[in-house]
Amino acid sequence: MTTSTTAKTMESTPVHEKKKMIETVNLTKSFGGHTAVSAVSLTIFEKELKSIIGPNGAGKTTFFNLLSGQMKPTSGEIFFQGKEIQHLPPHKRTKLGIGRSFQITNVFPTLTVLENVRLAVQAKYNIHYSMFRHFKHYKHLEEEAYESLEKVKLADKAGQLASNLAHGEKRKLEISILLALDTKLLLLDEPTAGMSIDEVPQIIEVIEEIRDQRDRTIILIEHKIDLVKHLSDSIAVLFHGKQLADGSPTEIMNNEQVQSAYLGGLYNDAED
Ligand SMILES: Nc1ncnc2c1ncn2[C@@H]1O[C@H](COP(=O)(O)OP(=O)(O)OP(=O)(O)O)[C@@H](O)[C@H]1O
């Protein structure tokens, strides 16, 4: 894990100088009588990495589903760069620049790693492939795809079939595809889940490098609290669907309400 002072730089930027990337206002999602997300009002600033933490069932994934458009809210609003988006379907939000890491459906197992990312680059430029055009017409797409693979440290696997990648490599490929699509807001849902111990530091390094470029905004759901502390500019805590706290990593770790209501449980989760 590399050390970086960039996160501290974001923390020290005065709030009035920060631009809002996405904001939720009283965002609520109920399933029958159960409210999974309850009047959550959160602001995520451009170029920051915000983590959403909370015990199992706290509403984190539902919150992501609302941001990405997989679910419609029961009430409340979502503003992306000032534009109201809660009524937009997922593909329109993708076009605006919101990308979610689990969109592994974009990965074609029988294509190579490079071909998968090249398709994302093509989609970004809206270019339809023609067998009769000279390959040089497409060379820049391939180069851009390769650069995107380099950013996630997967360039050495460019020629392999996507189906042959290890689990952690597939997660990196997903992130590479999001980067190739010029995603402004990356929604990373437990990127380390299911990874072997060897794979975790690699994905952390990738996320850290994307964060330190400071040209994207990242929202991260993650159970591993040490990782969250290390990576985040700010942390929001959900508890029974409600927003329990929102602040810097230090503020959250020192927040007595968070500690007593939740952190003990979280540490236990993390050790599972
Ligand atoms: N489609 C659904 N229908 C009914 N209830 C749902 C649905 N999706 C989520 N819930 C409920 O909403 C609550 C919040 O679930 P959610 O998956 O958002 O929590 P989470 O914080 O992501 O949990 P975990 O850390 O275990 O993934 C839970 O009680 C869950 O059972």
Automatic annotation (TrEMBL):
CDD domains referenced in this protein's UniProt entry, alphabetically: ABC_Mj1267_LivG_branched
Domain of life, per lineage: Bacteria
Keyword match Zinc-finger: no
One term of GO molecular function: ATP binding
Keyword Lipoprotein assigned: no
UniProt cross-references to InterPro entries, sorted A to Z: AAA+_ATPase, ABC_AA/LPS_Transport, ABC_transporter-like_ATP-bd, ABC_transporter-like_CS, BCA_ABC_TP_C, P-loop_NTPase
Stretches assigned to the ABC transporter domain: 22-265
Keywords, comma-separated and alphabetical: ATP-binding, Nucleotide-binding, Transport
Name of the featured protein: Branched-chain amino acid transport system ATP-binding protein
